[in-house]
Amino acid sequence: MKKQYLLMIILFLIGTFSYGQDRVIEGTVVSASDGLPLIGATVVKKGSTSGVTTDLDGKFKLSISQPEILVVSFIGFAEKEVAVNPGQSGPLTISLEEDITKLNEVVVSGLASSVKRSNLGNAVATVSSEELTGMTNQPTMDNALYGKVTGVNITQSSGAPGGGIAMRLRGVTSITGNNQPLFIIDGVYVSNAEIPSGLRNASGANSGNEENASNRIADLAPSDIENIEILKGPSAAAIYGARANAGVVIITTKRGKRGETRVKVSQDLGFNTIQRYMGIGDRPWTPSLVAETFGDGEVTAYNAAINGRGLVDYEEELYGETGLISDTRVSVTGGDEKTKFFIGGSLRDENGIVKNTGYQRASVRANIDHQLTDRIKFTTSSNFVNSFTQRGFTGNENEGGLSLGYNLVYTRPWDNLFPDEFGNYPDNPNAAGNMLLVRDQAINDENINRYIQGASLDINLYETDQSFLKFKWNGGFDTYNLETYVYVPEYHQAQRGLQNGFIGVGKNSIFNTNNQGFLVWDNYLSGGSLQLTSQVGYTYITFSRDLVYNQATQLIPAQTTLSQSGTQELDQTLQDVREFGYFAQQEVNFEDKIIATLGIRADKSTLNTDQNKLYYFPKASLALNIANYPFWSVDAINQLKVRAAYGETGSSARFGSLFTSFDPVNIGGSPGVSISSLRGSDNLVPETAAEFETGLDMGLLDNKLSFTATYYNRTVNDLILERQLQPSTGFSREIINLADLVNRGIELSMNAQPVQNENFIWNSTTNFWLNRSEVTRLDVPPFAPAGSAFGVGLGTPFIEEGQPVTQLKGRIDGEVVTVGDAEPDFQMSFFNNLTFFKNFDFSFLVHVKQGGENINLTTFLSDLAGLSGDLDEPSGQERTSNPNTDRYLEDASYMRLREIALYYRMPDNILSVFNGTINKIKIGASGRNLWTVTPYSGYDPEVSTKGGTGLSTGLDVNPFPSSKQVYFHVELEF
Predict the structure, then answer these.
(1) Helix or strand or coil: residue 650?
(2) Which tens digits make up the pLDDT trace of 503-542?
(3) Count of domains in the chain?
(4) How far is Cα 694 from Cα 713, in angstroms, rounded to an integer?
C-alpha cells in the first residue's frame, strides 16, 4: 500500500515539474469554409506580446510553460481564442470563420500603431480590394468609392476618361481653400492636384477651374489597392495635423505573401456609351415651327436640308461613339520567411464617347518586404505610371467657339457642319465654332510620367513576454512631370482675325517628400489585463511645384509648334513649402472592455505667418465594449460598444496668401512688374476644425447582423476669405480670417448575412448618411464666392450667416432670395453579394441620393437657342415663360445601379484537367452605371463645372457627358 502512495507522489511531482517547464505546442490554422491552410496567421499568447505566425503550410510552434489562451487572427477572418496547457498531447487544428462584420479588422489608430475595429473609438471606414474592384472594373480609385462609404460625397467634374472627381468627407471644410482629403499611399503623401492646361487662354472666356483637368489620384491603378481607410473627420484624423482638415484617405497597396510563387493574369474588355441624351434639337420640326422660332429666312435652309442630307442629330453625332475599353493586369506574388514580394503591371486603354478622346495608363509596381534580421524588417513600395489623356473640349467655354457642348446647344439640326470633299469644314452659322472641326482637328492632351517611392524600417529594440519597444521609420517621395498641349488651328472661325491659331504648352514638375520616425512601446500590466501603447515621433514634409506655361498665337499656317508663331508668352509659377510636426499618443486597453486614447500633434509650416510657431491639434477617444463585461447576459447581442471621440485639425493658408505679389507687365516691349491689387496678410492663422463624434456599434446573432450609428458635430473656425478694400488703401482686396461654419451629420450602416449554407451565401450592407451645414460667423456682408458660379442672376452658391454653406441664391421677381441647396437631404446605398453553389457570385450596388439642387445652365442655353426637345411641352413652355432663377434650378435626386456583376469560378474537377498548371479560372460580366432614375433633365445629376475645389458642386454647363460601361472578364491564376 505504501508503494502505491509513493508511486502516486512520484507521478505528482513529475507532473508538477513538467508543468513548470516550457513545452512546445504545435498546430495548424485553417479556413473553416474550405479547410485550406492560412499562411501568415498570427498566434499570440493572450495578454502578452509573445507570438508567432503560421508557415507555408499554416503550421505553427509556440513554447508555453503554463495554461495559456492563444489568440489566433488573420485578415478577413474572425479572431478566435483557444485554451492550451503544457500537458496536452497532439497537434491542434484551429479553424477560423470569415469575418463579414470586420470587427477584427485592424485599422490605423495612430501614425505607427493599429487597433482592432471592435476597439475603435472612432467611425473609421474601410474598403477592401474585393469591395473596391471585386464587382467590376474601375477606371480610377475615387470612381470606385461611389456609394460604398458613409459620409463621403463624390462628384464628377467631367465625364471624360481619365478622372475629374471631387471627393468630400462630411461636408464642406473651406470656402476658398481645399475641400479634398489628404491622400497617403503606403506612407507617402501624394498629390491630387488639378493642373489646368491653359485651354482658357484660347478665348479668355473661362477660368482655370473650368477646364475639367484630371485629378492626379486617377494615376493610381485601382487593381493595385489592398485596402483603403478613410478618416472622415478631425476626431480620427487629428494625428495628421495641419493637412487633415478635409479628412485623410490612407491607401495600402497589395503585398507579397509567404508561399509558392503565384502568377495572376486578368483581362477585361468592355465599352463606353453615353448614359443618357438630353434631346437637344429634338423638337418636332416643321417649316411653320422653324419660321415661328427663327423667322421666315431660316425656312429655306431647313427645306434645303430636308431635300438633301436631312436633319442631323448633332448630339448623337458628338456623343454617340461606342468607346472600347481594354484593361490587362499581371501580378506575381510569393515569398518565404525572409522575403515577400508583389510585382504587378497593368495597362488600361479606354476610348471615350467622343471621337479623339481617351485615356491610356500603364502602371508598374514592385512591393518588397524583407526581414533583414530577427529584429529588423525593411519594406519598399515602388510605382511608376505613364498616362496619356485626350480630354477634348467641353464645359463653359463660349467666346472661343471651342466647347463641344456650348456650340451644340446653338447648332440647328439643318446646319451643315461636315467637311467637304477637300476636308474643309464650314463655319457654324449660329455659334462661335464648328464643334466637328474642334473634335477632329483641335487638341487638348495631357501626358504624365509619375514615380512614387515609399520605404519603411521596423526595428525591434526590446522585447519580453510583457513588453515590446520598436522604432519605426517610413517615408518616400512623389514626383511627376505633367505635360499639357492645347492646339487650335488658325482657320477655326473664332480664331480668324484675332489670335489666328493658338498653342498652349505646359511643363509642370511636382516633387513632394515626407519622412517620419516613431518610437512605439507596448506594455502589458496586471497579468496582461491592461495594455498600454505609447508612441512619440516627428514628421517632415516638403511640397515643391514648378509650373511652366508657354503659349503662342498668330500661328504660321499648318504649324503646330511654339516657335512657328508671331506672338509668344511665358509664365512660370514656383512654390516651395516645408512643414514639420511632433506628435505623441497614449492608448490604454483594459481587457478589451475600456479602450481610451489621448494624443496631440504640433505643426509648424512655411505657409503660416510665423513659420516657427507651433499649432497644436489634440485628440481623445473612449470606447466601452459593454458586451465584454461579465454582467452582460444577452446572448443574442455579442457586441455592444458605445464610443465618443474629439479631435482638432488644421489647414494653412494657400501659397502666396502671406505676401503681396508682383504682377508682370510689358509696356512697349520693356518688361517690368506692378503691385498686385490683392493685398496679402501677415497675421493669418490656419483654418482649424474641431469635431466631436459619438456612436454605437452592435453585433447580433454571432455577428450575422451588425449595426453602426454615428453622430458628428464639426466646427471649422477662422475660414480664410477675401474682402473688399477702400480704394484709398491702394488695393482692391485682401486675404484675412473672416468666418466660421459647422457641419452636423448622421451615418448609419447595417451589415447582415441572412443566409449561409453549403449552396447559398448572402451578404448584404445598407448605408445611410446625411450632413447639415451652417455659417455661424461672417465678418463681411453676405457674398457669392468668386469663381463658384456666374452670379445671382443665373444662380450661385452664397455665403450668409445663419444659412447652409451650400445654399443657392437667385433672383425671384427681382429680389435676391434662397432658391435651393446643393447639399443632399440624405444618401443611401444597398450592396448585396450572393454566392450560389460555391461557384457563382452575383453582386450589385444601388446608390440613392435624395434632394440637392443643380443649376442646369445647359438646359438654359438650349432654351435660349430654341432647341430644347421639350420646349413644345407644358414643362418647357412653363420654364421659358418664367423670368426667375428657379426656371433652371432642378432636383438632382437619383437612384442609380452603380455596379452589377456575375462571375463563375471553375470548380476543382474542371481545373484538374490542367494538371496543376492553372489553379484558378474566373469568368464573368459586369456593368457600371447601367440604370439611373432621376427627375434631373441634364446628362448627369452628378456634375461640377467648376472642378473639384470650392463650392462648385451642382453647376451644370455643357459638360462631357457621363458614360455607362459594360465589361467581360477573364482571370487566370497559375
Answers:
(1) strand
(2) 999 999 999 999 999 999 999 887 778 999 999 999 999 9
(3) 2
(4) 9
